[in-house]
Structures are given as C-alpha cells and as structure tokens.
# Entry
Amino acid sequence: GAAIQAGIIAGDVTSDIVLLDVTPLTLGIETLGGVREPLIERNTTIPTSKSKVFTTAADNQTAVTIHVVQGERPMATDNVSLGSFNLTDLPPAPRGIPQIEVKFDIDANGIINVTAKDLGTKKEAKITISSNSKLSKEEIEKLKEDAEKFSDEDKKKKEKIDLRNEAESFIYTVEKLVNHDLKDKISQEQGIKVTDAVKEVKESLDKEIDVLKPKLETLKTLVNEITTELYKNSASQPSSDQQNAGADGQQEQDNTQQNSESFSDENKN
# Structure
C-alpha cells in the first residue's frame, strides 16, 4: 500500500501482576522506508492513549496504509504485525501537506483501537485489535532478546534508511525551489550546479552512508550558498520608502541588522 511519512524504552517488568497492567511491548506503525514509528512505549500503564500526526510521502497521494506493529526493533518487518487498514479518498495534494492523525487507544482489557483521521476533511478509518492477539510470555521475551541481539545491525539499517528519506525529502524541496519558487532569481550557472548535485545524490540513494552522506552535504551547502546570496542581494536593495528615510530611520535599520546577526540559525537544515 501507499506509504506514510513520519513527521518525533526500556524498562524491566518485575512481576506477573504488573504485566497485566502495562503494555509488554512497544506499539507503533510502519512509515516511509519500512521504519517503525513508536506511539506507545513498552511498560506503559493501561488504559492509555497516544496520538501523532503524520503526512503523505508522495504528491497527490489519495490513500495511506496504516500497518500496526508490536515489538522493539526499528524496522517494521522485524516486529509482530497486528493488522493494517487503509484511509482512502484523500484529496490530492503535494507531499507533506495532508495532516493525518494516528491515535492508539488501549482499554483496561488490552483491546487496541487504532484510528487514522485526515485533519483536513475529518475523514477517518480504524481497526480494533482484540486481546486474543496477545503474545505468550515466551514470545515476548524472544522479541526482547532479538532486539538486543540485533541492536547494532538494526541501528545501521535504520540510519541508512533515515538518511535516504532525508535525501529524498531534500531533493523534493530543492527541485521545487529551482523549478518554481526561485526559477527567475537564480542564474543559469547556479541552476546547472544544483541540477548536477541533485543528480549525484539521486544516483547515490541506494549506496552506503559514507557515499550518500557527503553527496547530500554538498547539495545542502550549495543550496545554502545560493539562498544566502539571494537573501543578501534582496536585503541590499531597499524599497523607495527606505531610500527616502531620514537619518534616524537609517540608524534604526542599522541597529536592527546588527541585532539580527546574533540569532543562531536553528533551522539551517
């Protein structure tokens, strides 16, 4: 089914009595690239509820598949599948625009209700997972042991997929900037440089981290240099009102520019 993209554990159970009152394993959903996004961590006291907002991974995506999984490993396929359902008839929109809220509700009996709602249209779909889906104590322990056993391998696998997702998202943003938003503001030479850098990143998407990461950083640096230059050029061309301003106005503008330089660029990437 169509993927959804994620936009944000430990604890030892000390008695069988506590096991009845908490979630024995982490519950989450599968997101872009097969990554598991946790919603309710293991050992959370029940009843409980938790929601997160996700978005689409492709332009004009009219449906998303919500795949519910249980386990401690970062990749959905390495956990236990509890079921899946589709939220359909979404209005076509650019990727990243739809806001889809996924909510987990677990009652005192361990019955899980998962709801997906498009916050724009209020359309929703859901699935109920009965307490009959519970794993045995041995199965739960095996899943925990596997999470420890494959910890390093899983970490590397997730890092690679996270980097690929980041690269694809940045490529989408850059192509939109170059082909639409900044099309008439950048030079032909700048456009060619960006296009070539994007091509190199695309060709490296399936390669190892040490190959893809420097290509992505090169593209980020290039785009940052171009947008910084455009901003400086824009700032150096005051409007007619600014040109006619008196000495007091000019002094105020100088102070404002000086103060603004002290802010850190938290959203650089």
Residues 1 and 121 are 21 Å apart (CA to CA).
